[in-house]
Amino acid sequence: MPLVFAGVCSHAPGITGRAHLADAAIRDEFYSHYHRLRGALEASRPDALVVVGAEHFANFFFDNMPAYCIGMADFYEGPIEDEEWLGIQRRRIPGAPDLSKRLIARVMDDCDVAYAQEWKFDHGISVPLHFLTPRYDLPVVPVNINCQEPPLTPLHRTWAFGKALRKACDAAPERIALIGTGGISHWPCTPDSGTVNEAFDRDFLDKFVNNRKDDLLAYTDEEVYREAGHGGFEIRTFIAIAAATEGATGELWFYAPIPIFAVGCTVATMGVQ
Question: Listing from the earlier edge strand, what are the strands of the sheet with 250-258?
Answer without folding.
Answer: 114-116, 68-71, 140-145, 48-53, 176-181, 5-9, 263-270, 250-258
